[in-house]
């Protein structure tokens, strides 16, 4: 199989601020895999957790290094390819792009969408949340209005907290959000590791009083011992994101969280995402899907597995000014994969012509 790489830059309609910083645009990688005249597509977007950021440049270098090694393989040899990529120390986001492209190739070769190939029921897909970044209360109010102005079908909000200004600022912002959208009954919180244990305990009780559904990553990665202490007293379910990369991490988190957040860049692709889903459910944990600065291509890929998720946070493509792809549909607040083969993703007309 032959691999081609292309970079593309996506700009957000509204910059997103979390506890670790602000993002207004990213440059992502578009991976095109060709074999027997059939193409499969994948995407990698940069992200940073811990000491080794997965930058666009690092992802591109790693793929260019292994592209000649991938030539002898067939797109159906996912296990062999995954072992080669891991042995070659290819970062997870780059592995995910290759894995995604191999799945897309399989769907095109079979002539059916992946959700259908896996026997999944799209009616089981829950609404996706849309994200409100850290800001002033007034700016948060405007962001909620912008989302609701884009679609009256929005049913769920995810609010980023963990403000450097402290939990009083978090509380003021959330109250403004709740007052601006009183008809939205499902609201979750993502602190992105921005709290210490004392503040997290205090906020868990206060957030429960506000009717919040669950808290995501209240403590920073590396503080899993404190996470266990929070888990023991929190009145709200706790989901982990940065603390859980792959299925291998799940057994060690069973006694300190209620669920996990799966992201393709982070875990290494649809193959590993499937393993994580089954592992989490085996241990009685909830499953949510999330995203970074991903386009329609990547969010459509993860949406293929969306019938298996309890919560969805696949809204990054909805906040892009210049998404080059079209794929999953936004229906009744849900991100729903279409009936086209593979991932069901195509280039928008203006991008296909360039």
UniProtKB/TrEMBL annotation:
The keyword rRNA-binding does not apply. Gene3D superfamilies: Enolase-like C-terminal domain, Enolase-like, N-terminal domain. GO terms for biological process: amino acid catabolic process. SUPFAM superfamilies: Enolase C-terminal domain-like, Enolase N-terminal domain-like. Keywords: Isomerase, Magnesium, Metal-binding. InterPro entries: DgoD-like (IPR034593), Dipeptide_epimerase (IPR034603), Enolase-like_C_sf (IPR036849), Enolase-like_N (IPR029017), Enolase_C-like (IPR029065), Mandel_Rmase/mucon_lact_enz_CS (IPR018110), Mandelate_racemase_C (IPR013342), Mandelate_racemase_N_dom (IPR013341). The keyword Metal-binding applies. The active site is at residues 160, 263. Binds 1 Mg(2+) ion per subunit. SMART domains: MR_MLE (SM00922). It comes from the Bacteria. It is an enzyme of class 5 (isomerase). Its cofactor is Mg(2+). Residues 137-237 form the Mandelate racemase/muconate lactonizing enzyme C-terminal domain. Its EC number is 5.1.1.-. Belongs to the mandelate racemase/muconate lactonizing enzyme family. This is Dipeptide epimerase. It comes from Romeriopsis navalis LEGE 11480.
């Amino acid at each position: 199989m032959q691999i081609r790489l292309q970079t593309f830059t996506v700009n957000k309609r509204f910059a997103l601020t979390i506890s670790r910083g602000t993002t207004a645009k990213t440059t992502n990688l578009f991976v095109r895999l060709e074999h027997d005249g059939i193409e499969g597509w994948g995407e990698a977007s940069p992200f940073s957790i811990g000491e080794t950021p997965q930058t666009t440049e690092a992802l591109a270098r790693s793929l260019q290094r292994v592209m000649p090694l991938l030539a002898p393989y067939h797109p159906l040899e996912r296990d062999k390819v995954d072992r080669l990529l891991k042995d070659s120390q290819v970062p997870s986001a780059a592995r995910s792009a290759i894995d995604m492209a191999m799945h897309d190739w399989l769907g095109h070769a079979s002539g059916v969408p992946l959700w259908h190939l896996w026997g999944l029921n799209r009616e089981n897909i829950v609404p996706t949340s849309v994200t409100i970044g850290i800001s002033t209360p007034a700016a948060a109010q405007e962001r909620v209005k912008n989302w609701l102005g884009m679609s009256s079908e929005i049913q769920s909000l995810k609010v980023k907290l963990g403000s450097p200004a402290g939990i009083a600022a978090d509380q003021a912002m959330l109250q403004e959000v709740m007052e601006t959208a009183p008809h939205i009954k499902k609201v979750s919180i993502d602190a992105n590791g921005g709290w210490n244990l004392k503040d997290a305990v205090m906020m868990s009780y206060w957030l429960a009083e506000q009717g919040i559904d669950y808290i995501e990553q209240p403590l920073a990665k590396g503080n899993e011992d404190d996470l266990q202490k929070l888990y023991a007293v929190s009145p709200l379910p706790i989901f982990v994101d940065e603390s859980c990369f792959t299925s291998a991490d799940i057994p060690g988190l069973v006694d300190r969280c209620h669920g996990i957040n799966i992201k393709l860049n982070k875990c290494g692709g649809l193959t590993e995402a499937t393993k994580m889903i089954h592992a989490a459910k085996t241990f009685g944990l909830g499953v949510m899907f999330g995203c970074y600065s991903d386009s329609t291509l990547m969010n459509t890929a993860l949406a293929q597995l969306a019938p298996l998720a309890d919560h969805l946070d696949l809204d990054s493509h909805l906040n892009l000014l210049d998404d080059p792809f079209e794929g999953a549909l936004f229906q009744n607040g849900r991100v729903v994969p279409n009936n086209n083969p593979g991932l069901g993703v195509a280039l928008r007309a203006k991008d296909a012509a360039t």
